[in-house]
Design a protein that fits this description.
Strand content: 15-25%
Strand order of the largest sheet: 4-3-5-10-6-9-7-8
Number of strands: 10
Mean pLDDT: 89
CATH class of the domain at 8-88: Mainly Alpha
CATH superfamily of the domain at 8-88: Winged helix-like DNA-binding domain superfamily/Winged helix DNA-binding domain
Number of helices: 10
Length: 314
């Protein structure tokens, strides 16, 4: 036997009016006019052959039939709402395993993951770090960020950001040695990462065409340690602007010199060629676009010329 159902639009208007006890408030909720709500309720009453409201001068009251009907449809609307939310939230969740570098993950990716999840709540990102060249047949990951020149032939590579270095340190106090010119570095401790031990030398050759013997050297395994040491005033680090942009803007660090050194390698987003793993494309596109925005903010304005050489293709 076919369902004997009332017209649904009038039913919505009746439920809203009964819940609010007001035609006016029902109209506001449904974004229609009061006249439209009244017309729909009247259509429902005609269809049911029952008066549902007693209309007074400035208010409406449910009749006994209206009260009974409202109680029933409230329960049914609640069940329909729960069923609808259950179905719409049943979108398949994707789990993406990502491998980056310690410093990249800690200083750039993790502070921005909330932005990714706000756009893709159904995608979970498992974050790991490793210094080894990625091997998708051996490493149990779906995508990675690695440094290189785009030379990978066994996977798809998309340019993320150039690698550039500048000296960074905590704002100097009155008792600190000056740091107005490159030669002043002789009176400071220089901080470097063990994986980037040659960067200070490259920068000094560009900035002063000389080698300088500083007051001391301090080496850490990870660049993230170097940045934290600089924030704490331990010495002058050589760092990548995209990893310290927030510290620069907050005044925790500053650039004592404007000269920079650009490495001959860059960051690339990698994933197996032809992979259709759910979530990888969305994560990769978000990462590349967000990094380009951050790099454009942190590095010189002509940095857009760099990105024009490589379009993001997934």
């Amino acid at each position: 036997m076919p369902w004997q159902l009332p017209p649904l639009n009038p039913l919505r208007c009746f439920e809203a009016a009964a819940r609010h006890g007001s035609i006016t408030n029902a109209a506001l909720e449904l974004h229609v006019t009061q006249a439209a709500v009244s017309k729909q309720i009247r259509a429902l009453e005609i269809a049911l052959h029952q008066r549902l409201f007693v209309r007074l001068h400035r208010e409406i009251r449910l009749t006994s039939a209206g009260e009974e009907y409202f109680a029933t449809i409230t329960q049914l609307f609640g069940e329909l709402d729960r069923a609808t939310r259950s179905v719409t939230s049943r979108r398949e969740r994707a789990r993406v395993r990502f491998m980056g570098y310690n410093t990249f993950n800690l200083r750039w990716l993790i502070p921005r993951l909330a932005d990714f999840y706000s756009q893709y709540p159904h995608i979970e990102i498992d974050v790991s770090d490793n210094l080894e060249p990625v091997d998708f047949s051996r490493h149990r990951v779906d995508c990675a960020v690695r440094t290189g020149r785009g030379e990978w032939s066994d996977c798809t590579s998309v340019l993320v950001a150039p690698i550039e270095f500048r000296p960074i340190c905590k704002p100097l106090g009155p008792a600190d040695p000056p740091l107005d010119q490159v030669e002043d570095l002789r009176r400071h401790t220089l901080i470097m990462s063990a994986t980037r031990s040659n960067v200070w030398g490259h920068w000094l050759r560009i900035a002063a065409d000389t080698q300088i013997e500083p007051a001391g050297w301090l080496t850490f395994d990870h660049g993230s340690y170097c940045y934290q040491a600089a924030v704490e005033g331990v010495g002058v680090a050589i760092g990548e602007p995209i990893f310290v942009d927030a510290d620069i803007k907050a005044g925790r660090l500053y650039y004592p010199f404007q000269q920079s050194y650009q490495d001959n390698i860059s960051y690339y987003f990698l994933h197996p060629a032809g992979s259709d793993k759910p979530g990888v494309r969305e994560f990769g596109e978000w990462l590349v676009h967000r990094a380009k925005s951050d790099v454009t903010s942190a590095l010189p304005k002509n940095i857009n010329d760099y990105f024009s050489e490589s379009a993001a293709v997934f």
